[in-house]
Fold Malate dehydrogenase.
Amino acid sequence: MVKVTVCGAAGGIGQPLSLMFKLNPYVTTLALYDVVNVPGVGKDLSHIDTDTKLESYLPENDGLEKALTGSDLVIIPAGVPRKPGMTRDDLFAINAGIIRDLANGIAQFAPSAFVLVISNPVNSTVPIVAEILKKNNVFNPQKLFGVTTLDCVRANTFVAELSKDKEASAFDTRVLGGHSGETIVPVFSQSAPEVYKELSDEQKAALVHRVQFGGDEVVKAKNGAGSATLSMAYAGYKLGHALLAAINDTPNIIESTFVYLKDSKIKGAAEAFKYINEKLKDSDSSDVDFFALPVVLSSNGIEEIKWDILEKVDAKETELLKIATGQLSKNIAKGTAFIAGN
Ligand SMILES: NC(=O)C1=CN([C@@H]2O[C@H](COP(=O)(O)OP(=O)(O)OC[C@H]3O[C@@H](n4cnc5c(N)ncnc54)[C@H](O)[C@@H]3O)[C@@H](O)[C@H]2O)C=CC1
Ligand SMILES: O=C([O-])CC(=O)C(=O)O
């Protein structure tokens, strides 16, 4: 029996993401929550002849409580998307409060659920969720995931375009750091070595830049009508499905996610925290408490952090990681301070 809750289910990401979970055989109940339009989305999906039971809730009549109670996995694509000319950080003013309120609901009604945060700016919204869960004494770092899967998906697609003989599905690129611009660091030296070795320095730089700013490509092409929704729904589903498979005892699944490190008991967290903060960050900027890294999944959630990839990356990638930590420490501190100041 697995209940999945999608918060922001009537949105551009929420709808296709909910469709995919309606088709997932692990899911017995799918609860949709949104502040608008969700009864229609829920009714529509409920006609699909898969066995997953559909529930949909607006905020009135304790909707959030009902959507979250008994939930095993909560996925959050709630909040506003970018328009051309905006950075992800420009979304903080609106989305931080939305995420705080949803996190308070999770702390109260689904304190032991796995939580996947899609809403931007991920580098700050994930720290917001962690702070709320900590305040309520229900924080378990094994169960909190910042969704950076779309960066990996893009990296696989873009590197395949440069490969002579391999399709996108042949790649499993690791992307480290965070989820915005220069905080996104694909490490092709570790995951696509054959293709990577053949590229010139200019080609390597262009490939990395394309992954870092892939979101902008979509924002520009949509021309005011939002940001990535369909590729994001796919990516969110990919991580969610991997987690459901791990919960159901499929061994050795590795996915990348923006994971909490500081004071965490997860295997590899202390080593990751030390390496990032001592070797990749200026001593005068605040701690980088979260970082996107490959993790091994189990029925407990994040079982192990594969931090040693940080030691293996090449000199140029190390330089990029150092640039990433500067921005990331500010983004994380901003999220944490938002809750400390509330
Ligand atoms: N992590 C990632 O890689 C990516 C993250 N995103 C982010 O995902 C978020 C959602 O994007 P879209 O689906 O395109 O936006 P959208 O505007 O189409 O949908 C957002 C939905 O959230 C709902 N919502 C607003 N406040 C809410 C609340 N308090 N509780 C529940 N639902 C609420 C809205 O009613 C709407 O249905 C944005 O912040 C966007 O930047 C988008 C793409 C990739
Ligand atoms: O670019 C955006 O604002 C949405 C996003 O995070 C992405 O597509 O990577």
About this structure: Residues 7-8, 10-14, 33-36, 77-82, 91, 95, 98, 101-102, 118-120, 122, 147, 150, 179, 226-229, 232 surround NAI (ligand 1) (CB under 6 Å). The chain has a mean pLDDT of 97.
